[in-house]
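Thread: Newbie trying to understand structure tokens

Hi all, I'm a second-year student working on a class project, and my supervisor (Dr. K.) asked me to get a predicted structure for one chain before our next meeting. I've only ever worked with sequences, so writing a 3D structure as a token string is new to me. If someone could post the tokens and maybe explain what I'm looking at, I'd be very grateful. Here's the chain:
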Amino acid sequence: MNITQPGARPTRVCTRRTMQRVYTRCIILILLVCFVSGSMSCGFIVFNDPTTESTTPGTTENTTAESTTVTTTTAPPETTEPVDPREEADKLLDSLADRNLGGAGVIIATTDDETICPLSSDDEVIAARSVATRAVEDKYNALIITDLVDSQSMLDAALEAVAADMYYADLLAIPLSSLGSFMQAGILMNMYSLPYTDYTKSYYLDVTDEAVFGGELMAAYGAASFNPEQLSCVYFNRDLIAEYSLDNPYDLVYSGDWTWEELARLSREVNAAAGVYGHGTDYTTDEYISGAALSMGIDYITNRANQAPFVSYMAEDKLANDANGIVDILYRMLYNNSALAPEGDSSDLFTSGELLFEFGSLEKMTSLTNRDVNWGILPYPKYDEEQRHYLSPLSFDAPVFCALASTPNYETSGLILEALNASYYGYTNEIYLNERINYCLRDNDSINMLELIIEGATSDFAHMFASGFTNLANATYSAVKNAVTTRSTLTSLYQNWHTAADNELAAAAVIYE
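---
Reply by user tm_fold:
Sure, no problem. This is what the structure looks like when written as tokens:
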């Protein structure tokens, strides 16, 4: 989606700020090799094999720097000290406005207390989020309290509090798929109005752009709400790839050729050779189709500054051709010779070595750690080789931050929102990666794949706001699902629903001159 909101930050892929690793001996070895050769490739990090050339995803070109003569000196070569991600996050936090809240409690109502400001935990990943939260409390002399509640109960309580002119919470952390219903209830603040916030900062992620509605920002998504466990990925059986001499999926990813067509081809080949299933999924059919369409870059909505958003994915030939192409790919994946595992059986089949590819979330990784299957991970495939990035669908339950329009403490809300995202940025992601590298991943290439999956986090306007609009889902992702599962034409489904959806969106949009 193309956002041209004044002051909006440039489009970018969600990235970590640093790529430091715990493999100190390997890093030193790499640095020594680079010192001798006088050059270092800037591709993905590969551990334990410093002679391996790396390539940038989306290209097949390797570049080699000219060799240089090493000058002998009496001083040892300079080395760069590893950057401590906690120190870097604290520097960001220290750069923010100073205030003393006098020990006041700051309440965040949330549906996900393992992601949003959790208490201390034996799990290192969750504990890191707790450390980042405590740093914010120390800076502002405040106590951050999370109130765990389901989405509907939170909406009911917030409506009751607003109607009675009562305090409810300083911030809400709601599922992104609930944003439309909260917005249509008329209780959310325009997040652009929160003081102390700067959504151009790198700790706010691209999903925030999808929460712009007309001239207002209805939710913010940043480091404090980002949880890699909620991203989708593809698990694969490395032994089956090797045993039947199939193309290595890692190589396809590195060359930019990892597409849905390639995944379908490998699925058919292993099914024919080994008699096992080609691919399966942990997700329901609806979730699978919606996530797959997002990974292929479908763009349902046009959303520009000072204009009501409108459904546009079939309005131009290129967009319509791509959308119909996505429907065709998914129909073949589900129903036409793609060696699909029976619904509900994919997990057992994968762990028993009878399934080549399984779609699931990164959360599943820890459950595979002690299994016998020799597995690796991959990002979701691209639509075609021309697609620039590998995109990782974000769970529709992933939390986004909102603020109530009636909150009396909106300055505190803005202050804490900004500080949480700064304090989490880089640090919590680094701990997550270190834990998964040390205790879960089984090969070096999977480390690079995990980086790509995290960098490609994505969601979209339609999934965020459809809960508040009767016709929006029917005009967008449900139309794609119905075109796949019922073989209705996508053009007819679009024509049936897009005008009604556009009218609803236009009626709700606030437009500023």
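A couple of things are worth pointing out once you decode it. The longest strand covers residues 104-110. The longest helix spans residues 317-335. Feel free to ask follow-ups in this thread.
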